[in-house]
Amino acid sequence: MTSTGWVQAQQMHFSAPLALKSGAVLPPYSLTYETHGTLNAARSNAVLVCHALNASHHLAGTDAQGKLGWWDNLIGPGKALDTDKFFVIGVNNPGSCFGSTGPMDVHPLTGAIYGADFPVVTVQDWVDAQVRLVQALGIQQLAAVLGGSLGGMQALDWTLRHSDKLRHCVAVATAPNLSAQNIAFNEVARRAIVTDPDFHGGHYIAKGVVPKRGLRVARMIGHITYLAGDAMELKFGRELKATDLGYSTQDVEFQVESYLRHQGDKFSDYFDANTYLLITRALDYFDPAREVNGDLTRAFASAQQNRFLLVSFSTDWRFSPARSREIVKALVDNRIRVSYAEIDAPHGHDAFLLDDPRYHAVMRAYFERMANEAVTA
Amino acid sequence: MSERKDLELIADLVPTGSRVLDLGCGDGELLAFLRDHKNCTGYGIELDDTNLLASARRGIDVIQLNLEDGLALFDDRSFDVVLQLDTLQHLRNTEKMLRETARVGRIGIVSFPNFAHWPNRLHVLQGRMPVTRALPYAWYDTPNIRVGTFADFDLLAHKCGLGVTDSFGLQAGQVVRTWPNLRASVAVFKFEQN
Predict the structure, then answer these.
(1) Which of A47, A228, A362, B171 could disulfide-link A315, Cβ–Cβ 3.0 to 4.6 Å?
(2) Bridge pairing between strands A307-313 and A81-82
(3) What is the pTM of this model?
């Protein structure tokens, strides 16, 4: 199957500040986005794809740096989300570090780098920013919003507060909120960053340093939680790096250590520490039931007109199938149209980025029906 | 051909415009038929990946669940009709599922292969387990973990307090109301909450 080819990132500037959920305001900002396929004359075939923690607007194809998009196995000509049929939009959320305004940028009023002063952003704030972008692109109603993990939370939020602006919500490996265990993992990652001597209260750029040690550890712990224990056992087992034990407490002895350190090193080279703090906090905060006395069913009452596809993976212990079933229940209680697939896959949370044939077949079937449906909006 | 008819004969029991839950919906054929011909809405429940995909391709709203885990997802009386067609013989917890079916739906419709159909009796008289259209598997290689008869179900329905409002057999695309326990390969029961 072919890829979508070369893709050029685009920028859109928003001169009106964005009112944030916290009560703070994001001063004029820019969003980086990319598009695939062609918007049809009725402007009814647009699909917005929301990214999770460490991804970006770059969904598919090859960008100017020669990098393949993070969901290239799903999105492209002839693929499950077929860009011959749909106009697909990827957008980098504000606060991230891949082109949209974030903590590494300069505050337009003070002239100083935001750093730790970048306002705390929530899933809702990102969705509000996405709504503006979609409107600026001349789209009144999206065919669908799609996302996995934290991206799935954004897709759900669209139906909670902007249900008239989309028809379908496709939310993969996601949850109605984070569990205490999930928040705990996020907190360990944040403490690793914040206690790095190079963090400087979040104003490390001004000091000309990067808290790489903290970022590495944050990524290492995150990475463990994205994998299933069995898959890790299968991939690494107790395999040693050398032929024999080195009797060292600090050198790499086991292959799994080597792998995690490599992942940590790679990550610390491209990811911003303040962005990591912001995004994990947005994950912690997402909890649509909280505003309606913990009643998720009531939270989804607004989504009557939307149709949903939810997908979870059997070995995903970070966003487990039970969490997706909570969402299914809330939708069913509201008599909202929903399909739900529980994919028996060994790869843990990471499965949503892989190309398991059962998973992609369900996604393809759903998007094909969507492409064929009459638009009555 | 008769399968097609069976589907339509069962669809006849479903009131137009019903909200339907189809437990073990298979490839979604009946739900698609009810949607297209009787203006029904609702969900299919299916465990099998291949069936789930086939249902999704038909545009059915299908939820992947193991029925053995019960129907906690669904509130009391949240559907007009709950269908449990050709499913009962695969379930370990038959009685629990029947009670759940009655709890969730105003009307329950159950169908299953009738072991007392006369050719089956002949097989057993000859000392062999039957292999027929309705029971197509060899005894050592069957997904059916139990077999029952029209008459047996009547007793179970009574025990579970189901108000049976209609019951009949299906044989070669025909409704069988005379001696269904002997003359029909498939048993159909419809019950309603009082």
Answers:
(1) A228
(2) unpaired
(3) 0.95
pLDDT score for B135:
87
Per-residue pLDDT reduced to its tens digit, B51-110: 999 999 999 999 999 998 889 999 999 999 999 999 988 899 889 999 999 999 999 999
φ, ψ (nearest 5 deg) of residue A19? -70, 130
pLDDT of residue A377: 44
Instruction: For residue A131, give both structure tokens.
Output: 């709504």
pLDDT tens column, A92-137: 999 999 999 999 999 999 999 999 999 999 999 999 999 999 999 9
List Cα–Cα distances, A18 to A101, A121, A126, B26, in angstroms: 12, 10, 10, 48
Q: What is the 3-state secondary structure (H, E, C) of chain A?
A: CCCCCECCCEEEEECCCEECCCCCEECCEEEEEEEECCCCCCCCCEEEEECCCCCCCCCCCECCCCCECCCCCCEECCCCEECCCCEEEEECCCCCCCCCCCCCCECCCCCCECHHHCCCCCHHHHHHHHHHHHHHCCCCCEEEEEEECHHHHHHHHHHHHCHHHEEEEEEECCCCCCCHHHHHHHHHHHHHHHCCCCCHHHCCCCCCCCCHHHHHHHHHHHHHHHCCHHHHHHHCCCCECCCCCCCCCCCCCEHHHHHHHHHHHHHHHHCCHHHHHHHHHHHHHCCHHHHHCCCHHHHHHHHCCCEEEEEEECCCCCCCHHHHHHHHHHHHHCCCEEEEEEECCCCHHHHHHCCCHHHHHHHHHHHHHHHHCCCCC
Locate A325 and state its tokens: 């079933």
Q: Catalytic residue at A203?
A: no
- B63: contact with A, CB 8 A cutoff: yes
Q: How high is the pLDDT of residue A2? A: 56
A370 sits in the region (left: phi over 0; alpha: psi -120 to 50; else beta) called alpha
Is A349 assigned a catalytic role? Answer: yes
Q: Which residues of B touch A368 (CB under 8 A)?
A: 57
How far is the C-alpha of A361 from the C-alpha of A188, rounded, in Å? 37
Q: Which of B21, B64, B75 to mutate to test the interface with A (most CBs of A within 10 A)?
A: B64
pLDDT digits (tens, 9 = 90+) for B145-187: 888 999 999 999 999 999 999 999 999 989 999 999 999 999 9
Residues sharing a CB contact under 8 Å with residue A152, sequence separation 6 or more, in sequence order = A50, A171, A172, A173, A174, A175, A319
Give me the pLDDT at residue A322, please.
97
CA proximity to B144, closest of B135, B153, B152: B135
Using CA atoms, how far residue B49 sits from A353, A355, A359, B89, B192, in Å, is 19, 16, 10, 20, 32
| Chain-centroid distance, C-alpha B146 | 14
Say how many CA atoms lie within 13 Å of B143 toward its Cβ.
9
Model confidence at B4: pLDDT above 80: no
CB contact under 8 A, A365 and B19: no
Examine the pLDDT at B1 and tell me if it is beyond 90. no
Residue in chain B lying closest to A358 (CA): B49
- Pinpoint the alpha helices (H) of B42-131: 49-57, 94-104, 118-125
